[in-house]
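PROTEIN DATA CARD
Card holder: Charged multivesicular body protein 4C
Chain length: 232
Origin: Cyclopterus lumpus
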Amino acid sequence: MSKIAKLFKGSSSSSSSSSPKSKHHRSRGGPSPQEAIHKLRETEEMLTKKQDYLEKRIEQELLIAKKNGTKNKRAALQALKRKKRLEQQLTQIDGTLSTIEFQREALENSHTNTEVLKNMGFAAKAMKKVHENMDVDKIDDLMQDITEQQDVAREISDAISGPFGETFDEDELLAELEELEQQELEDSMKSMGGLPSVPSSKLPSARPSHRATTKKRVEDDDDMRMLASWGT
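Structure generated from the sequence above:
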């Protein structure tokens, strides 16, 4: 049994076995956390109202002192004395409110922690009850059975989705297809009369270049000068 369960087992058993008389006696012995927090909040509200009242009284006494400052010095001094006493009360109330606020927050936190621990104890008991009917070995066997069944289902799926009937070599089919394409190309060329024949006659030579033409012209000029020299 966990520590949390032990912590709340004694409290729950004692509360269940107690009689209404004992419960009534316990409530008379001390207030519950909710009651104490409620009382502290009421006290805070009362002191806050008291603060507002004192602050207004202080303002009034200050106005009286200012009003009678030059006319009635005695009345002005009495007003200032009352103001001082009111300020002392206001300071005391501020300190009391701080103490009550701190006490209330501590009580609220304690009550919250108690409720959290109580709920955690209930959750621990519920989890323990759930796990009572669970066996780790049985869980391992179950997971193994699930894995085996998944493997069987995968094998069945592979068998169903596999090729059915005769199988052929894909390379042989591609080679045969290539032969058919080549045969179709040859038949198409034959139907068109075959390839065009190569011409038998010599093709005309290309146009003489500018350099060759210039050389021929120079030779002709030399011949004409030679004939002229013979005639003279």
